[in-house]
Amino acid sequence: MDLLDSLVAKGLAGEQPTRDEALAVLASGDDELLDVVAAAGRLPRHYFGRRVKLNYLVNLKSGLCPEDCSYCSQRLGSKAEILKYTWLKPEQAAEAARAGVAGGAKRVCLVASGRGPTDRDVERVADTIAAIKEADERVEICACLGLLSDGQADRLREAGVHAYNHNLNTSENTYGDICSTHDFADRVDTVQQAQSAGLSACSGLIAGMGESDADLVDVVFALRELNPDSVPVNFLIPFEGTPLAKEWNLTPQRCLRILAMVRFVFPDVEVRIAGGREVHLRTLQPLALHLANSIFLGDYLTSEGQAGQADLDMIADAGFTVEGADEATLPRDRAEAAVVRRRGAGTDLPPNA
Ligand code: SF4
């Protein structure tokens, strides 16, 4: 397939696919699926080897959100049966983080429901980071606290946050269909604030919300403009009690095509399979390891993930290895660019940047 040869060549050269090429990957048929996976899989193998980075999610605060994101079980008025609690104490969060790190996680993602943190919330998170780092200084911390206000990203960086996650989720055109309490521009602004403060940007999407192929390509290209260091790909879990409860739109094959398209657009960036991995990829999860180089270990957010050991077994069975705390995630060129963004030009690259 000429298209795939061209996409691989572009990816190895660090070039972008065109919009039509990205759409063609999504439109490819089941007969071509293994060819698509094999082609896209050459890119992470080139840039990341056979390493899989493990991330562990600690939910600092769950439910009771005033926003109305229609995909979210924690939204205003959600009837979904999830745990609802306000902030975990730093020691509780550190204990949860320890379990993930012991299971092989390199990055701990500290997540809190809500529109965005107050300055007091940011200080709570700072205390939590101190408790986690006391046990293991090398743990990479990502914060996911919602929309940021002035100065908060700087404070988080000072507290030891490495990355900030804030997803664009869907295309600008359809954003108003999934949320009325904030808009696409608000999300872009928070990602840019995090980057300006020197944090590594983690920003991705949710597939399966009824969007078109063009919407998916739009959001992935919008993400590309933001130049994140990691891109989580979520597959919608249609929670009962949310407006999208009936949106079961994904097949395992479709998920693989989406991951392949994202990989062609982000050849040398951490692409992470996030929410909905088990529910939607099901028995094809090992194939997805050829496309993404990062997954969440075990349980995440408000849904049950596979038990951590099952993930570790799958990685080993598929011939991959877990990325160690001292191994670099990003290829050197990209890591250097990220460090320059974080610390200014002329800064040496640390061994595990
Ligand atoms: S702001 Fe976050 S926690 Fe609140 S409804 Fe939206 S996605 Fe859910």
Largest sheet: 10 strands, parallel
Radius of gyration: 19 Å
The CATH class label is Alpha Beta
| CATH architecture field | Alpha-Beta Barrel
In the CATH hierarchy, the third-tier topology is known as TIM Barrel
Total of helices = 14
* CATH superfamily caption: Aldolase class I
Enzyme class: transferase
Catalytic activity: (4R,5S)-dethiobiotin + (sulfur carrier)-SH + 2 reduced [2Fe-2S]-[ferredoxin] + 2 S-adenosyl-L-methionine = (sulfur carrier)-H + biotin + 2 5'-deoxyadenosine + 2 L-methionine + 2 oxidized [2Fe-2S]-[ferredoxin]
Family: Belongs to the radical SAM superfamily. Biotin synthase family.
Keywords: 2Fe-2S, 4Fe-4S, Biotin biosynthesis, Iron, Iron-sulfur, Metal-binding, S-adenosyl-L-methionine, Transferase
Describe this structure in words.
With 353 residues, the protein is α/β, with parallel strands linked by helices. It has one domain (2-343): Aldolase class I (TIM Barrel). The chain has 14 helices and ten strands. It starts with a helix and ends in a 10-residue tail after the last helix. Iron/sulfur cluster binds at residues 65, 67, 69, 72, 74-75, 113-115, 146. Iron/sulfur cluster is lined by residues 65, 67, 69, 72, 74-75, 113-115, 146. Homodimer.
Based on the model shown, name its key terms.
alpha/beta, TIM Barrel, about 45% helix, binds iron/sulfur cluster
